[in-house]
UniProtKB/TrEMBL annotation:
Belongs to the type III secretion exporter family. SUPFAM superfamilies: EscU C-terminal domain-like. The chain crosses the membrane at residues 35-56, 68-88, 94-119, 148-169, 189-216. Required for formation of the rod structure in the basal body of the flagellar apparatus. Together with FliI and FliH, may constitute the export apparatus of flagellin. Residues 1-29, 357-378 are annotated as: Disordered. The keyword Ribosomal protein does not apply. Pfam families: Bac_export_2 (PF01312). This is Flagellar biosynthetic protein FlhB. GO terms for biological process: bacterial-type flagellum assembly; protein secretion. GO terms for cellular component: plasma membrane. Keywords: Bacterial flagellum biogenesis, Bacterial flagellum protein export, Cell membrane, Cell projection, Cilium, Flagellum, Membrane, Protein transport, Transmembrane, Transmembrane helix, Transport. InterPro entries: FlhB, T3SS_substrate_exporter, T3SS_substrate_exporter_C.
Length: 378
C-alpha cells in the first residue's frame, strides 16, 4: 500500500540540481522553435537587404554574360562549360554573405534557449512514442493546444502586419508605374526587402510568448514528488543503513589497525579503567613521543589486555591518561605542555626495562605527576 501511495503522489516540487543535470545529459532542455524561426527569418532578411546590392551586381554580371553569347560559342562545349563554371562561381560569391549569415543564425538560434548541448541519448529511438494511446494523449495535451493557438496567432499577426504594410506603402507601390524601368526595379526590390524584414520581425511577438511557455513546460515535466526527492537523496548519498554499516566497518578497520600498534608501544597509561593510551618513543627516530592507540571503556580494556599479553608496561596515571586521550590524535605527538609528565613516565619505563636486564636498581613508580591546568580533564 505504501508503494502505491508513493507512486500516486503529485509532482509539486521543483526539480533538484541532480534531476536537471540528468535531464540535460539525456538531451532534455527547454527549446523554442519559434525563437529559432524568428532569428533565422530576421537574419536572412536583414542579410539579404544589406547584401542585396552586391548580390544584384553579381547576378547582373552573370545574366549579362549569359545573354550576350555569340552564336559560335553555343556550339563550343569547352567554352560553354567555362561560362557555366564562371556563372556558378559568381553567383556563389554573391550569395556568400547571405549563406554565412544564415549559417551563424542556424547555429545561434537553437542554443539561444537551453544553451549548447550534445547528447547521443536524444537520438536513441524511443518505443513509447509508438504507443497509439500515448500519441492520442499528446494530440489533446495542453502543449498541442498551445501549438495550435501559436499557429493561428502567427498567421493572424503576419496577415495583420501585411495589411498594415500594404496600406503604408500604397502610395510608393502605385508610384512605381510612373518611374523609369531600372529605378523602378531597384525601388521595388527595396520595398520588398523592407516588407520582408517587417514581416519577419512580426514573429518576435510569437517568440516572446513561446519562450516563457517552453520554460514553464520544461520545468513542469521535470517536477518531482517528495518521494522522488527522497529516492534521489538515497541514490546519491546512500541509504542510511548502508552508510551506518560502512562507518561501522571503517571504525572496525581503524580499531584493528590501532590494536596492531599496541604491541610496539613503550607504555600504556591508564585511568585505570575508563581510559587507556599507548605511547611509543624512539629517541633515535622521534623528536617527541607519539600516540599509537587510545580508547575508552571496552576499547581501553582491549588495549590493556593486548599490552599485558605482549609485556608492554602499564602505568596508572588517571589525570595524564585523560589529558592525552582528549588532546592528542592517533599517530600524533603529545602536546608540548605534557612533555614533562610523559617524560617522567617514560623515564620510569626505560629504567624498569634496564633493571629487568640486570642494569641498575628498581625505579619507584612515578607519583605526583603534574598536568597543566589548561590540559586537565577531570
Amino acid at each position: 500500500m505504501a508503494e502505491n501511495n508513493d507512486s500516486s503522489q503529485e509532482k509539486t516540487e521543483e526539480a533538484t540540481p541532480r534531476k536537471l543535470e540528468k535531464a540535460r545529459e539525456d538531451g532534455q532542455v527547454a527549446r523554442s522553435k519559434e525563437l529559432t524561426t524568428t532569428i533565422l527569418l530576421l537574419t536572412g532578411t536583414l542579410a539579404l537587404l544589406a547584401s542585396g546590392e552586391f548580390l544584384g551586381r553579381k547576378l547582373m554580371g552573370v545574366f549579362r554574360v549569359s545573354m550576350t553569347l555569340e552564336r559560335t560559342a553555343v556550339f563550343d562545349p569547352v567554352l560553354m562549360l567555362t561560362l557555366v563554371g564562371t556563372a556558378v562561381r559568381e553567383a556563389m560569391v554573391g550569395l556568400a554573405p547571405l549563406f554565412a549569415a544564415l549559417m551563424v543564425a542556424a547555429f545561434v538560434g537553437p542554443i539561444s534557449l537551453g544553451g549548447w548541448l550534445v547528447s547521443t541519448k536524444a537520438l536513441a529511438p524511443k518505443l513509447n512514442r509508438m504507443d497509439p494511446l500515448a500519441g492520442l494523449k499528446r494530440m489533446f495535451s495542453i502543449k498541442s493546444v498551445v501549438e495550435l493557438l501559436k499557429a493561428i496567432g502567427k498567421v493572424g499577426i503576419i496577415l495583420l502586419v501585411a495589411i498594415m504594410m500594404l496600406k503604408a506603402l500604397k502610395v510608393q507601390l502605385l508610384g512605381l508605374s510612373s518611374e523609369a524601368l531600372v529605378p523602378a526595379i531597384g525601388h521595388a526590390l527595396w520595398l520588398a526587402g523592407i516588407s520582408a524584414v517587417v514581416l519577419s520581425a512580426s514573429t518576435i511577438f510569437i517568440a516572446i510568448m513561446d519562450v516563457p511557455f517552453q520554460l514553464w513546460d520544461h520545468a513542469k515535466k521535470l517536477r518531482m514528488s517528495m518521494q522522488d526527492i527522497k529516492d534521489e537523496y538515497k541514490d546519491t548519498e546512500g541509504k542510511p543503513e548502508v552508510k551506518s554499516r560502512v562507518r561501522q566497518l571503517q571504525r572496525e578497520m581503524a580499531e584493528r589497525r590501532m590494536m596492531s600498534e599496541v604491541p610496539e608501544a613503550d607504555v600504556v597509561i591508564t585511568n585505570p579503567t575508563h581510559y587507556a593510551v599507548a605511547l611509543k618513543y624512539d629517541p633515535a627516530t622521534m623528536d617527541t613521543p607519539v600516540l599509537v592507540a587510545k580508547g575508552a571503556d571496552q576499547i581501553a580494556l582491549k588495549i590493556r589486555e593486548i599490552a599485558a599479553a605482549h609485556n608492554v608496561e602499564i602505568v596508572e596515571s588517571p589525570a595524564l591518561a585523560r589529558s592525552i586521550f582528549n588532546t592528542t590524535e592517533l599517530d600524533s605527538p603529545v602536546p608540548a605542555g605534557l612533555f614533562v609528565a610523559v617524560a617522567q613516565v617514560l623515564a620510569y619505563v626505560f629504567q624498569l626495562r634496564s633493571h629487568r636486564q640486570g642494569q641498575g636498581a628498581k625505579p619507584k613508580k612515578p607519583g605526583g605527576i603534574q598536568i597543566p591546568p589548561n590540559l586537565r580533564y577531570d
